Amino acid sequence: MKTMKLEIVTPNGLIYEGDVKMVTLPGKEGEFGVLPEHASLVSLLETGVITVETADGKEIMIAINHGYVKVDENKVSCIVDGAVLISDEEGRLSERMAEAKELLQKAQTSDVAIAAAVSKVESIKKSY
Amino acid sequence: MASLKDIKRKIKSVKGTQKTTHAMKLVSSAKLKRAEELAKRSKTYAQKITEMIDEIALQIAKYNDVSDNIYFRKVENPSTVDIVFVTADKGLCGGFNSQTIKAVNTMIAEWSAKGAKVRLRAIGKKGIAYYRFNQMEMIDEIEGLSASPSYEEAAKFIRSCVNDYIEGKTDKVVVVHNGYVNMITQEIRVDNLVPVDPSNLPSEAQASSSELELEPDDDDTLLEALVHRYLEYVMYYALIDSLAAEHGARMQAMDAATTNAKEMVKSLTVQYNKARQEAITTELIEIISGVEALK
Description:
The complex is a heterodimer. By secondary structure, chain A is α+β, with helices and mostly antiparallel strands. Chain A has one domain: ATP Synthase, domain 1 (Sandwich). In chain A, a hairpin with a 2-residue loop joins strand 2 and strand 3. The longest helix of chain A is centred in the last third of the chain and has 17 residues. Chain B is α/β, with parallel strands linked by helices. Chain B folds into two domains: 57 residues, Helix Hairpins; 222 residues, Pyruvate Kinase, Chain: A, domain 1, CATH 3.40.1380. The model of chain B has no long low-confidence stretch (mean pLDDT 88). At the A-B interface, strand 1, strand 2, strand 4 and strand 7 of A face helix 1, strand 6 and helix 5 of B.
């Protein structure tokens, strides 16, 4: 299966970079999925969770507050204000989740969007 | 020949200077660490957002008519150019400020030769002082921002500049600063802010084969917000980068000053010992010749 490059950057540095099979992004006008060879697009990102399927089939979630994404045939670059990678690295999952929730709750958007994103983050716990 | 007392006083004064420069070096190296960390973290973001804007510019140029888009249009012969330059608020950092000023002067000469009117926007006391002394007009000046960069202030500063651009008062905005390469090297960096110039993209970069879509696509607000974000961040990053470079330059300058002071103390001490020996010898000769005379 084809893959594309994904980059997620915040003013605090690079959060994620790697080859992925699929990305689901929280766009301003609704969530949308991107596969390789997607037509080029620039979109506003809302508070929410980016779901990534990596090249080796793992699923990763990244909570973001606000930003932009540029998609083209072989690259997706996200420029966001704040992001937390939720991973089980070194058994720090709960710590990361708390961080992610804090980031989401601080975001200045509608409560509905925040609640949806927070519940999504909470559902991750169950899957681990 | 200077008297013993004079030399002693001089040694003391040089030692005092040495202490000061050494302390300044330590302060700068501590500050450098912090500034460097900040610059490193922001670098990726600045790079990526620039890359993104450049790619968008490339794509717009390929599929759309760029002449009606104010941020992406091509300006062949700008009649007015704004140069924004960043210098330090403080001196004692070697050639750091003069390098920037020299680069700005070269640019002024270049644009003037092409018939463009150059307007200066200065950040940092040292640059302002230089152009005031040379009686060159600056349309905007701000002090204190280069010593403690804040995103809001940087955004405000560049906003007024970009507003002039939108209103057509200027055709091109360039940012010049002395950037950080590593602890001992700085380099002059020039960013063409607006209009966006995609020519710095690596040559293998290609415009995507499909037309760019925007979402939400009601009007140009998305692109405009993105471009503003880009402009603000590039300005802010220039400040951070310049601050890190300034501390690097100061550390190096102060290190050199401390070494020089050490050398000076050494040669003065030799001089002092020589003079002391000479005085003793003269005294001895006097005593001996006095004794001889009495015989």
